[in-house]
Amino acid sequence: MDYQQKLAEKLTILNERGNGVLIRMNHIKKACADPKTRPSILTDKAMEPAIKYINKKFPNIDFRGNIQNLTNIQKQKSEVLAAALSFYNSFLDVIEFRDHVYELLNTIDACQCFFDISINFDFTKNYLDLIITYTSVIIMLSRIDDKKALVGMFNCAHEMTNGSGDPSYPRLGQMFLEYEHPWKKLTEEFGPHTRSVTAALLSLRMVYPRRNLPAEQWRSAQLLSLLSAPAGMLDPACCDTMACEYLSMEVMERWIIIGFLLCHSSLNTNQASQELWKMALRSGLFLVLTRDEVLNIHKVSEDLFDSIKGYVRGTFWEAKKSLSISCFIASGAMHRERRQFLRGTLMELFKVLEDEPGLLGPKALFVFMALSFSRDEVLWLVRHSENMPKMKTAEDYVDNQMAELLFHMEKLRGLMTKHNHVVQRYHVQYLAQFDALVLNDTIQNMSVCPEEESVLLSSFVSTLSALSVKQVENKEEFDFRALRLDWLRMQAYTSVNKAPLPIKEYTDLAKVMNMIQFHTRMVDSVEELLQETSEVSILGNYPRVFEKMFFQSSEEPSMKRYLMAFPLVCSHFSQCGHPLCPEEREVMEKRSLHLCVTFLEQIAKQTSSVVLEICAEQCTLNDQLQPKNCAEAISAARHRQQKKPLPKKGEVQKEKPGAESLRKDRAVVTNLDKMHLMLTELCSSYSICSDFVVFDHIVVPAEFLISHLETRLSEIIVRMAHYNQTTEEIARPSDLLAGLRAYIASLQSLSSYINVDVTRLLKNILLQQTQPLDARGGQTITTIYTSWFLESLLRQASNSLIVHCPTMHCFFNQASDNEPVFRAEQFSDISELQALAELIGPYGMKFLSENMMWHITSQVSELKKLVIENMDTLVQMRNNFDKPEEMANLKKRLSGSENVMKRMTIIGVILSFRLMAQDCLKDIMNKHCPYLIGPIDCLMDFISPQTDIKVTLGVLELASAAGLKCNIDPALVAAISNMQTDNMSVDEEYKLSCLLLVYIGVSLPTLALDPNSVYSREHGGHNNNIHCLATAINQLAVAMFTVQKKNIEQQLKEFLLLASSTLLQLGQNVEKMESKNRESVYLLLHMIVQESSFLTQDMLERCFPYVLLRNAYREVYRTSIITLG
């Protein structure tokens, strides 16, 4: 008969089912309370009269007499049915669960089962769990405010649809009414079960007091210390109550407090019950029902006993009230001391086991005890922090060192998982070579052993004896769930009254089997046991408390190395779901990921801040060594050599670079020391794991740090440029490059603290700086320097305030009365442009070129307009250039010559700057990747005039990107090509190009009128930048005729002939004012030929006498010598 009751199976199934129903009730309560998730039928304004009527009349709702109040349900009955169906079915689950619990508890009472946590552990635990789960379900049901409205609306809609109400509705309505005051009804229900419940709870008398000790006693007993008894370090940690040692204190307190509240009569009649209950009450003020739903145990006790006669004036009740006050004051301090003790103990335990993983075999119990104790303290603090009222001892409910406790818990979990094979191997041998023999001896010594029990025990022995180490080495899967379930069944069989084999008389068998059960779990379910003893998923239901703990810990310098425990704890949250409530998973997933990302972002933010502060300090120190800062040192040295008087005493002498490294006392800690220490602490937290999983998302903490560093460093690089568009201020490229190199050198040391790919980080950052915008859409140094060079330097050069100097390959400021905003030579010499090329690279230089081309095409568009305005005159001049009289008349009709020269000079200045930048880019490319430049250079040798133009332009574009000089500028060709308009034919474009050259040629003599058109021997150019015309004419002509596929050499010859003729006519002019700078202008012809790849000196001599050029050079050089003299 006992076997047919299936008590063990029913307890197991009902506990699992009850947990699901409990979580479901909690979800319904949360969903109805949150405006975002509240069912639409409850938020609809039109439904308010119906909801008020149903709540008032529930459960006896008159559908006929008050149909007016229910009109809207009638209109939306299908929607109401669909919306309320899942809630209705969930409430039916509660009825079904209650019925099965009633039946099972009555059966257990009828069987007069024996309960003792130290003997039939699993049977007793399942029994007490079922009672607490059932009570929690009923209390949660009573906390759902909208349950009557949901059920009533569903039943109304059901009757309106089907003509009759749901058959289960009367029972459901009755249950809601019965449990409006849940504790009153529950105490009535459990009155008949008082004997069984009390017996089960009193079996905790030996376990709970031993566990509920203050930290002083733990410390004096050297609890969990492996070093306290070195001689017994290899002895297996075992006792008669293995499972009780890591049983959660929170679980036991829930059993004791709620159990005795349900069976309160035993508190008046049994002194032992009263003492046990008081001890549990001293531990705190709140108990968890589920998730973040708590029970204020002292308030509930007071309310319950107030409603029961006989308690109010009794001595027990007075003792209870004084106990509440003492608990309120003392419990916080007691738990604070426990946490302090556990922090040190867990660290010691981890260090020993990490050093000697082999000890995990015999001392596995210590690990689970440590984890269970720590988990209890974490959960206690969480539920009390959230719900505790204001008090004088608030610091007892705040722990800014929680990170350390969580960190050591995670490290112990990780150690057990990593060395699982060690634990498995040890316990397989233990089971086969010790437990099997002890169990066999115990069976042999039993005086009575019925057949059913004999079969089970024999199967236990044979299963354990068959184990071998080879199974572990072969990585075979172990599964002892059947054995443990059989042991649970046997506990149930032998715990009933008048059992053939009463377990209370064979305690040795129970102790051996309980130990075997623990050892089997060490073989096949270590992960499950770790989850049972150390999961802290409750933190996911208290996000505010969890975040507060994190920020409190992050403010403590000593806790920074443990901060990674917080995001790692988020990986626990996926374990707390239940199949009966799948909706909860999505909510918890979002919350877990949000918390995890928040914590990792904050850790990464702190770490990146420290890293970049160190980089900034190093950059400052490096800046002190720059040549620009050595003037004072040179001056001081000069003073010493000349024996001049030293500075006065009041003057503070500047320290030399490196003085910060000289220390008289090591105890003196610099700011850099503090930052390095903080960086060490923060980076230590990343060592806990390289990655972890949160709800199927793989999280890599180091990537958050890399992302933060990438963002911050990009911003810093831009700030280091010191660009001010209003004042036109900007850092010299060489200064920025020096600072950037200091940052890079300092960042490289980060890889010695933490395993991150710094090279990849720097490549990403620097590559982004070569683009117009970075990954976040922000400005880059490429954009900044492009803007500055075009809008500041080249714009002033266009106005001749800044002059291009071919001799020194730079630009320089013209002498003027006003102080220049910047010195052009400090930004445009070879070293600065090489630094610019190194900073922005080929991509950045290409962007710079594209912007230059935009400015050039703007000027070309204006030039074409001028050509169109003077087209007739230019055509005639082209045909009559060898007739001086005719040309003189035509020249008077020509307008805008100065404008043409001005615009061509602007183009020449831009192209001259581009050539300088390209030369510097070539130097940098040769320095960094000569193996790449060599093949490109060779490829250019294969280009000939006969090569297809597309192929030619493709090769030239490649060469130009590498900084090589090209006869045809591919960027300019592309820009001119994009200017072609649809309404103009190729022949017309060609005609415009030819006439533009004519326009330029006939306008050259006007340059002699400009007093600034003086050639400077020192600078190798003219003071108004007209020497840049040579570059402009050559490159622009080549680009235009390449696009139009015409003969470049022929067109340039025609231009040379026309320009020579025009300039020769200038020589015949007798007016001195007009021909003042004639010799300087003559030199332009020579420069044009020198710059061109298509013109030669022979061609020039045919149309312009060389003697004139020689005399021109002699004249300008003679003037230069006189000026210098």
Structural features, described:
It comes from Gasterosteus aculeatus aculeatus (three-spined stickleback). Residues 638-647 have a biased composition (Basic residues). Residues 638-663 are annotated as: Disordered. This protein is mostly helical and 1125 residues long. It contains 50 helices and 8 strands. The strands form 4 sheets. Strands 1-2 form a two-stranded antiparallel sheet. Helix 21 runs antiparallel to helix 27. It is elongated and about 140 Å long. The model has no long low-confidence stretch (mean pLDDT 88).
Mean pLDDT: 88
Overall body shape:
elongated
Number of strands: 8
Number of helices, counting only DSSP H or I runs of 4 residues or more: 50
Described by its quaternary structure, the protein is single chain
Indicate the structural class: mainly alpha
Strand order of the largest sheet: 1-2
What percent strand? under 5%
Q: Give start-end ranges of low-pLDDT stretches.
A: none
* Biggest sheet features: 2 strands, antiparallel
What is the rounded distance between the termini?
130 Å
Indicate the radius of gyration in whole angstroms. 46 Å
Give the proportion of residues in helices.
55-70%
Biased composition (Basic residues): 638-647
Protein name: NCK associated protein 1 like
Region (Disordered): 638-663
Organism: Gasterosteus aculeatus aculeatus (three-spined stickleback)
